[in-house]
Write a structure and sequence with these properties.
heterodimer; A: alpha+beta; Alpha-Beta Plaits; 4-stranded antiparallel beta sheet; 4 strands; globular; B: alpha+beta; Calcium-transporting ATPase, cytoplasmic transduction domain A; Calcium-transporting ATPase, cytoplasmic domain N; 7-stranded mixed beta sheet
Chain lengths: 73, 609
């Protein structure tokens, strides 16, 4: 299942790359791609995992990389 | 300017004033130290704090950490003034970056701003403005002049002209009247229309285009992969080099520590690959955004990259190189006027929906008095028999003529020949043919001048028709009499590793071919479902000149990407060399970091135009 999250205050491209890496490694995530320009993250979540908890894990992983940036949606 | 940017600007100003004051008044001792530390804190507290947080998170080689080490190191060497100045300069760079990035994001967004804000819908006899996503299929919408058409649909009432420039890049307005289709995202120009919504918002052309362009970053270009790998190694290597630089000379050659540590700190400042990491995707995004404004939708940077290197261009014939619409090209009557022959044929075919009948009716233009027709009989695979004004007419192919015993004669014109007879008396024939697009020859010529080595045309038609079209347009290789599955195998035989191939089709019936080609390009029909699904690049109108335009755009974008990479890398390399030899100051290093970044962003924005 593909989900699109908005990334608010995503100002640093290196961080975008690191977020992408961090989210890819999360459990329940098939793949992730951050569009730095559109400030969006497209995440492919495994069908058998709970979207809500994956979403929380994503938000946490992103906060660790770039505390200024918020995951929305 | 956002609030965040304003606060940063104030901090930069306050810190600069404090720095200048303490320098101008030559503050010494504890007072001087306090002033410098305060200036440093005002300018850089979030950098230091971010660096600390990151260490807790196990992230060492990050820009903030490196800046903190570099400036703290400078202070450790007793160079307070320089440490503060470098921090201020760095923040000025960050501020510029933030402004430039925000600006470019905004200009790309406004370029792609085809999203309608609201729809005026007629409910219970009242006009109501609602969000386009609230409108259901079948509801009646009212669109006033100057407004965007919110959903795809059909005009019920009113005639107007619409501007589809935001979708196709074509600025010539189109005239639309009752029962004509209008497409969401186009602008109603002249008068009020009422229309019936035929799609919901999520399925409308506008939504599909937006989704496609905004998610384009999913297919990354090879060069982006290179940047990712490069930046992963670049920072650790430069930091390691800095450590070696700081220690080797003092340890083994008895040099002074301060001098070499200072040089090592310069390394740390330029060890962030930011300029590369930002400017490459930004250039691609700008290129994709600029292209979408011209009616060229590209599904990802990877395709943009391939498009710039196309060596073989393969075309479908019907509907791509030709108009795909049959037209009457010749009327050869036997002892009658052309108009009379066409009139009789049109009357006989008046009730048929067959494409051939339609083309005869279009050529006839005038009013057809259907009361003159008393009976019509379709003869499958042959034509029609019709009684018009009491005369028995046969209109159809040569087999029909044979069966009624009329002495027909063949035609030297290429195309489909429609014979007409009254009983056994042969009246003449009409030739119908698909016509070549006006711009086809010029488009092929431009492709060749752009370095496309082979042009190929695939068609299911006879060799004769294929060769004559190919010759007229200037195509190198013509492959005719192909079934759909033959087209795929033909493409496979043409594909080669180092010469990317594009296939251009109209998106109907050729989905397998589109997906097999390196770059599948669908054109025409304002983004039909099939085309958008199967193709990698969608040309939003059926003008072939869009193809050389797309290649030029892709090349320009790639040129900008390469410029940025070369520029950023060479400036950094230069600073590293100068720094290790002791010729670079930390100021220069900060410029090499953020200054280059801002310049690269500005350069990347050229891809938009």
């Amino acid at each position: 299942m593909k989900k699109i999250y908005r990334l608010e205050d995503l100002d640093c491209a290196t961080c975008a790359m690191k977020m992408e890496d961090a989210v890819r490694k999360l459990e329940g995530v098939e793949g992730a791609s951050v569009n730095f320009m559109a400030q969006k993250m497209i995440v492919d979540i495994k069908d058998d995992s709970d979207e809500n908890s994956v979403r929380k894990a994503i938000a946490k992983a992103c906060r660790r990389v770039e505390p200024d940036c918020k995951v929305i949606g | 300017m956002t609030k965040k940017q304003l606060i940063l600007l104030i901090r930069i100003a306050a810190s600069s004033v404090l720095l200048l004051a303490s320098w101008a008044f030559k503050l010494q001792g504890p007072l001087g130290l306090a002033a410098y530390l305060a200036a440093y804190a005002i300018a850089g507290w979030n950098v230091v704090w971010g660096a600390l947080l990151n260490i807790f998170h196990g992230q060492v080689f990050d820009e903030k950490f490196l800046m903190t080490v570099a400036t703290a190191g400078a202070m450790g060497l007793g160079d307070y003034k320089e440490a503060v100045a470098v921090m201020v300069f760095y923040q000025i760079g960050e501020w510029f970056e933030s402004i430039a990035l925000g600006k470019s994001r905004k200009s790309i967004a406004s370029l792609m701003d085809i999203r309608p804000d609201e729809a005026v819908v007629l409910r219970d006899g009242q006009e109501r403005a609602v969000d386009p996503s609230q409108v259901e299929v079948g509801e009646t919408l009212i669109v006033k002049p100057g407004e965007k058409i919110p959903l795809d649909g059909v005009i019920i009432e009113g005639s107007t002209s619409v501007n589809t420039a935001a979708l196709t890049g074509e600025s010539l307005p189109l005239d639309r009247g009752p029962s004509d289709r209008v497409v969401s995202g186009s602008i109603n120009l002249t008068s009020v229309i009422r229309m019936r919504a035929e799609t919901n918002f999520a399925q409308s052309t506008v939504s599909r285009i937006l989704e496609l362009t905004e998610n384009a970053a999913q297919r990354k270009a090879r060069i982006e992969g290179f940047i990712t790998r490069f930046s992963r190694w670049y920072t650790p290597i430069v930091v390691l080099a800095a450590v070696l630089l700081a220690t080797i000379a003092p340890l083994f050659f008895a040099q002074s520590w301060g001098k070499w540590i200072n040089r090592a700190l310069i390394f740390l400042v330029v060890s962030c690959p930011c300029a590369l990491v930002v400017s490459v995707p930004l250039s691609f995004f700008g290129g994709i955004g600029g292209a979408s404004h011209k009616g060229i939708l590209i599904k990802g940077a990877g395709y943009l990259e391939l498009l710039s290197r196309i060596k073989t261009a393969v075309f479908d014939k019907t509907g791509t190189l030709t108009k795909g619409v049959f037209e009457v090209v010749a009327i050869h009557p036997q002892a009658r006027s052309e108009a009379e022959l066409l009139d009789l044929a049109a009357l006989a075919e008046a009730n048929s929906s067959h494409p051939i009948a339609q083309s005869i009716l279009r050529a006839h233009e005038g009013h057809i008095d259907k009361s003159r027709i008393s009976s019509v009989k379709e003869m499958a695979g042959q034509g029609v028999e019709a009684i018009v004004d009491g005369r028995r007419l046969y209109v159809g192919n040569s087999r029909l003529m044979e069966s009624v015993g009329a002495s027909w004669r063949p035609c030297h014109h290429e195309g489909t020949v429609i014979h007409v007879s009254e009983g056994k008396e042969y009246l003449g024939h009409i030739v119908i043919s698909d016509t070549i697009k006006q711009e086809a020859r010029e488009a092929i010529a431009q492709l060749k001048s752009l370095g496309v080595e082979r042009t190929v045309m695939l068609t299911g038609d006879s060799d004769e028709v294929g060769q004559s079209v190919g010759k007229a347009i200037g195509i190198d290789i013509v492959a005719s009499r192909l079934m759909p599955q033959d087209k795929v195998s033909r493409i496979e035989s043409l594909i080669s590793k180092d010469a990317p191939l594009c296939f251009v089709g109209d998106g109907i019936n050729d989905a397998p071919v589109l997906s097999r080609a390196d770059v599948g390009i669908a054109m025409g029909d304002l983004g039909s479902d099939a085309a958008i699904e199967a193709a990698d690049v969608v040309l939003m109108d059926d003008n072939l000149m869009k193809l050389p335009q797309a290649i030029r755009l892709a090349r320009k974008t790639m040129r900008i990407v390469r410029q940025n990479i070369v520029f950023a890398l060479s400036v950094k390399a230069l600073v590293l060399v100068l720094g290790s030899l002791g010729f670079a100051t930390m100021w220069l290093a900060v410029f090499a970091d953020v200054g280059v970044l801002v310049l690269a962003i500005l350069n990347a924005m050229r891809a938009l135009r």
